[in-house]
Amino acid sequence: MATLLLRNGRVIDPVTATDAILDVVIREGVVVTVGPPPEADAAAAPPDSDVEVVDCSGLLVTPGLIDLHCHVMTGLGDFCVEADQVGVDMGVPVVVDGGTSGVATFDISRRAVIDHPDTRTKVLAFIDPNQLYLATRDFICHKLTIANDLKNLDMASLEASLARNADVVVGLKARACHVGDDQHSPFLEAAQQAGGPLPVMVHLGRFPHTPVITPAALLRSMRGGDIITHAFRGAGGMIGADGKAIPEFRDAVDRGVVLDVGHSGTDFRFKEARRLFEQGYRPDTASTDLNVFNIGGPVYSLAETLTKLLALGLDLHDVVAMGTSNVARVIGRSDELGTIAPGRPAELSVLRLRTDGPFPVSDGVETVQSPAALEPIGCVRAGQWVPSAGVASFAATGRTWTDAAEGEDW
């Protein structure tokens, strides 16, 4: 494997508080040197060795972006997008499938996507605690009311799957359905019980056909380290009639519950985000929930989602952390992801910070002018340089999506 040299980039690493013009040398899939250009150049390789040089002058070099919530188990239903389409082709070396599959179909989905030799992106996953769950366009498991059927839970099988797939499963994704008591979800409880210390991601919002517990009950049920995805959606119940975050929300954050953007097509709103930001509640992580409904807008990409946070006035360093080091910590992978340091696996992203705007971005309802935008240039995946494909954005394409049907989140 040739040595790879990312030359003269602005390295931003939230873990080490680095923001400097540096060279990064990678060999055999591992970061070898991070340092000033003359020193790093000398360490790149012996004179007779092959060195692939990527000129990063004027570009950002960050730890590899990690999309905490997307749907990439293609072939399992009709809801997912290709892992590489939303991964390496968008400058994102690592993606986490957001619970597309339940236990019964996880192994075959793993073989078809995660372990498939043609998959270049590193794919990790949340698993639904139900035996049969698959995300589809028509919410089939909700339409057939098996998403809220206790017979769909088998704790022994769930625990066996978690053990068998521990190398790729980073947590569980619970749809907090109930079976008559809107204060208690046995599906969330099963996920927490089986997963132990693993985080449980919970969808904040509705599903057609199957009821979910109330937002306040959901917040009371979550442990420190569990994840609320769609935390900044409109009408999510996080803000009371007085315009303030409800006590259950404040208590959940104080316990260490993670606030994830989980944009999707209807689950992130600038208005709601502003109200929570003003009260000191900001995202810990900034995922997309990319799927067939929203990849053509309003979500587009992880870079576009991060740009929306810049548009709301968040600091660049904080935004980078929301897409890298914070995610690695939340999924328990800080030992291998989320920072750039010698000896670490080489997963990095290269982006252009554009300031020649303003750049319009949309949450699906409101359009905001951002003074800056993040444009993916490429990524390093397992030590290999992968240039980005052309990545769409609202600024380039304008509105390309249709509104969700009444009562549906997507």
Helix amount: 10-25%
Query: What is the number of independent domains?
Result: 2
Work out the helix count.
13
* Residue-averaged pLDDT: 95
CATH class of the largest domain: Alpha Beta
* Low-confidence regions: none
What is the count of β-strands?
17
N-to-C series of helices and strands: EEEHEEEHEHEHHEHEHEHEHHHHEEEEEH
CA-based shape: globular
Main beta-sheet strand count, sense and barrel state: 8 strands, mixed
Give the name of the CATH superfamily of the largest domain. Metal-dependent hydrolases
Q: Supply the helix-strand structural class.
A: alpha/beta
- Alpha carbon gap, first and last residue: 42 Å
Question: What do you see in this structure?
Answer:
By secondary structure, the protein is α/β, with parallel strands linked by helices. The chain has 2 domains: 3-62 and 343-397, Urease, subunit C, domain 1 (Roll); 65-330, Metal-dependent hydrolases (TIM Barrel), CATH 3.20.20.140. The chain has 13 helices and 17 strands. The strands form 3 sheets. Strands 1, 2, 3, 4, 5, 13, 16 and 17 form an 8-stranded mixed sheet that branches. A 7-stranded parallel sheet has the order 6-7-8-9-10-11-12. A hairpin with a 2-residue loop joins β16 (373-381) and β17. α7 (215-221) runs parallel beside α8 and α10 (302-311) runs antiparallel to α11 (316-322). 54% of the residues are buried.
